[in-house]
Write a structure and sequence with these properties.
Layout: E1 3-9, H1 23-28, H2 35-52, E2 56-58, E3 66-71, E4 77-81, E5 85-89, E6 97-100, E7 109-114, E8 119-124, E9 133-138, E10 145-150, E11 156-163, E12 166-172, E13 180-181, E14 204-207, E15 210-214, E16 218-222, E17 230-233, E18 242-249, E19 255-261, E20 272-275, E21 283-284, E22 296-300, E23 304-308, E24 313-316, E25 324-327, E26 333-337, E27 340-344, E28 350-354
Antiparallel strand pairs: 1-8, 1-9, 2-28, 3-4, 4-5, 5-6, 7-8, 10-11, 11-12, 12-13, 14-15, 15-16, 16-17, 18-19, 19-20, 20-21, 22-23, 23-24, 24-25, 26-27, 27-28
Amino acid sequence: MIHGILQFFDKLAKNTTSRYSDLQSLRQNVPNPTAQDLKSSMILILFFMNANAQWIKQNSNTDASFRSIQAISDKTVWAGGTKGTILKTEDGGQKWQVLKIAGAENLDFRDIQVLDKKTVIAMSAGDGGATWQVVFETTEKGTFFDSIDFWNKKEGLLIGDPIDNKPFILKTTDGGLTWNRISKDRLPDIQDAEASFAASGTCVITKGKSAWICTQKRVFFTHDKGETWNVTETKFTKGQTLGIFGLHFVNEKTGFAVGGDYKNDKQAIDNVAVTNDSGKSWEMLTPTKPDGLKEASWLVNGKTLITVGTSGTGISKDMGKSWEVFDTQPFHAISCYKNTCWTIGGRGSVAKATF
């Protein structure tokens, strides 16, 4: 097995803006409406409401499968997938560019990080080579990369499956050019059969000076950029196919964990939890609708929690107390810029929604 981290340099287009029509002006142009006019208007309004209440599919121009995505503006989004495929849009998804990396056909990019307008880090888990600049690779037995995240354009963490009864955590301080394993002496021990799921690029999350890493049932955390580590246990059910699949932190205090069972991905199960004390303790929330596996989450508008997975997308407008079915299409990962979100999954499926 060769597992690698690649760098790519690119200049992105400037953002553009768009406007929506004001429905109020339409209403002012219809004096003394008849009953038929009102009926037509009601149908029109309901149509628009329904159209907004779903993911709008976009054409990715590829059949590769994707488990990583990052939106850096309301126009520019990057994604990493199988067959050595990188996706990029600079116009909000009207057109997706497929960047095929020569010699990397067997690479599976499980995570992607945009450091600035010219630098992108892609993390692979699989065999192969690449024409991008290879900044780290290993053939160490048992190595499998799961997720990557950066505090800033210089400092970041990469995690893989545990080795030698300890979490496998690499750290960079030079923008990904070099990586070093965090000393095992700083880390808590791993439990029997404990590992992370490389499902959505959200097994490790950085925020401020903190970072959190999820395994099936536990969350490891640091508040000093990896100098010291602690671990806490959640009430998620642990197994080879079930547990926590992804994390999302709003700030250094509040974060969400989602999960389930990928072999029984439609099964009703406790699948979402929240922390309000920087990851020290976790409270299980009402299970999402639709039921089943949730692999990633995002909080928009300060109150709307979105969860995606192979069983569909659920939305909570009260921080996880109650849920609505938003969509039943299967997706793996989500990334939002303000209130505009993209989600991505298998066979080139990508979609967009504004909340």
